[in-house]
Amino acid sequence: MLKMFFFTYNQRAYTSEGIVETLEVVTLAGDVPVKRFAQENHLPLHSWPPDDVNGRFDVGVVVSFGCLLPERLIRKFPYGILNVHPSLLPRWRGPAPVFHTILHGDSVTGVSIIQIRPHRFDVGPILNQQLYQVPENCTADELGGTLATMGAHLLIKTLMSLSERMENQREQGQTGATFAPKIKTSMSWIVWEEQTCDQIDRLYRAVGSRIPLRTMWMGRTIKLLDFTGKCHVSLSDQRRNPIPGSVSFQKDSNTLAVCCKDGWVGFRSVLLKKRLTAADFYNGYLHRTQQKNTLCQMAEGQFFSKKGEIEVHQMRKNSKL
C-alpha cells in the first residue's frame, strides 16, 4: 500500500481503503476546506513548504495548489509527485482550465493525471486521462464539481496500477497546447459591438457566479445580474434602428434586453448604487431618456463598452462647444 503526501489548496482529500496506507496533507495558509477536512478526519496536516518528508512517502499528489514544486522536493518521493488537472492536457494548461473550457465553448473536456516536473506548470508526462462531454448550458461551477469527482476516482485508478502507468506514460506534445490564465475582473467587461449572444452567454456561465458582467452607462459602471440568455425583441418595440448597447425594457418578462453584435441578450436586474430590478432601472433611469431624440440624450439610454464610453464623452463635450 502507498504512503501518500497530498498537496492541495481548496479541494477535498480522497482516499480508498486497501490502496493508501497513510495520507498526510499540505495546504497553504488560510482557512481552506481541505484544512478543515483534514482536521475533522484526524489527518496529519502540514503548512507549506513541508519538511521531514525524506523516506516517509511513496508518492505525492497535487490538486489546485498553485505553487511550483522544487526538484529537490519531487526527488524525495520514489514515484514522484502526481497532479490531478481538470482538462485534457495539453489543452488548458494553467490555473483556470475549467473557466476557459466554458468561455471558449469546448464540447469535450476531461481530467488528466500527470507527473509533476519542476520549473513549469502542467507540462509533465500523462499517466491517465478520462474524457467528458460538456453538458449544454453548463456553468464553470457545475463543470468544476463534476471534474473534481471524476479526478478523485481517476486518481484512485491510477494509484492502483501506478508502476504500470509510469512505465507507459506519454509525453505531452505541443500540438493543441493552450494556456488558461487566471480569471480577472477585466474579463467581465462586455463589448456590445464585438461580442455575440453566444459569446456573452459563455462569458456569463464562465465567470458570472464570481465576477458580475460589467458595462458602462453615463460614465458609471453597471453590474449586470440575473442573465436570461438570448431574447427576441421585435422591431415594433424600437423607436430607432438598434445599435449595439441599445436597451429595451421588456415589460412582460421584466427584463432589460441589450443589443449586441448579432442579437439581444437579457438581464433581470442590475447593480448601480444598489440592486435594481429591470423595471426599477427602467422607470427610474431609462424611461425619461428614451423619450428624447438628440444624440447626446439618446446615449443616456444606452450601455457602452469602455471604448464606446470614451467616444460618447467626447461627443457630449463637442456638443457643448
UniProtKB/TrEMBL annotation:
One MF annotation (Gene Ontology) recorded for this entry: methionyl-tRNA formyltransferase activity
Signal peptide range in chain numbering: none
Any coiled-coil regions, as ranges: none
Catalysed reactions listed for this entry: L-methionyl-tRNA(fMet) + (6R)-10-formyltetrahydrofolate = N-formyl-L-methionyl-tRNA(fMet) + (6S)-5,6,7,8-tetrahydrofolate + H(+)
UniProt domain Formyl transferase C-terminal: residue ranges: 182-285
EC number of the protein: 2.1.2.9
Domain named Formyl transferase N-terminal: residues: 58-158
Gene Ontology terms: cellular component: mitochondrion
A Pfam family: Formyl_trans_C
Origin superkingdom: Eukaryota
Subcellular locations according to the entry: Mitochondrion
Keywords (A to Z) from UniProt: Mitochondrion, Protein biosynthesis, Transferase, Transit peptide
InterPro entries: Fmt (IPR005794), Formyl_trans_C (IPR005793), Formyl_transf_N (IPR002376), Formyl_transf_N_sf (IPR036477), Formyl_transferase-like_C_sf (IPR011034), Met-tRNA-FMT_N (IPR041711)
Major enzyme class: transferase
Similarity remark: Belongs to the Fmt family.
Purpose of the protein: Methionyl-tRNA formyltransferase that formylates methionyl-tRNA in mitochondria and is crucial for translation initiation.
Name used for this protein in its record: Methionyl-tRNA formyltransferase, mitochondrial
Species of origin: Oreochromis niloticus (Nile tilapia)
